[in-house]
Design brief:
Keywords: Coiled coil, Mitochondrion, Ribonucleoprotein, Ribosomal protein, Transit peptide. Belongs to the mitochondrion-specific ribosomal protein mS26 family. With about 140 residues, the chain is mainly alpha-helical. The protein has two helices and three strands, in the order H-H-E-E-E. A three-stranded antiparallel beta sheet has the order 1-2-3, with no helix packed on it. The N and C termini lie far apart (about 145 Å).
Length: about 140
């Protein structure tokens, strides 16, 4: 009977001890989990702050890049517009020399009174001999 009592007492104490150990393990696990969660939350907060700073810097950098690009495009557009206006101005100046139906008689008169001969020759010394009717010995040479 003693041995049965000892066996049951020992078994009961082992079960109580195992139950106490399980509760202690469970309590230790819960404390460790809470500590890990606290560390994880702190780490996440630090990373959030770092990420927000990085995103803010990148956003500012992108905004500055976009502003600079817009300014460059506007300057380029203004330069093209100025060049186009210069071309228009030059063409407007040329328009005054066009022969219109009203100025046709005047242009014909001017062409008849001021004949232009584009035929000329250049000798070995670089002298220009003007006209078809000019002979080589005549003194109508003009140096260019």
């Amino acid at each position: 009977m003693k041995s049965i009592r000892r066996f049951l007492t020992h078994k009961h104490s082992v079960l109580l001890q195992a139950k106490a150990d399980t509760e202690a393990l469970h309590r230790a696990f819960e404390e460790d989990l809470a500590r890990c969660n606290t560390i994880n939350d702190q780490w996440n907060e630090e990373l959030r702050v770092i990420r927000e700073e990085r995103v803010a810097k990148q956003l500012e950098k992108d905004i500055n890049f976009a502003k600079n690009r817009m300014e460059a495009l506007l300057e380029e557009k203004e330069a093209k517009l100025a060049a186009a206006e210069e071309i228009v101005k030059q063409h407007k100046e040329l328009v005054t020399t066009f022969i219109t139906p009203e100025s046709l008689d005047e242009a014909i008169e001017k062409a008849i009174n001021n004949p232009v001969d584009y035929n000329f020759a250049i000798d070995l010394q670089g002298n220009r001999i003007v006209g078809r009717e000019t002979k080589p010995g005549q003194e109508t040479n003009v140096n260019s």
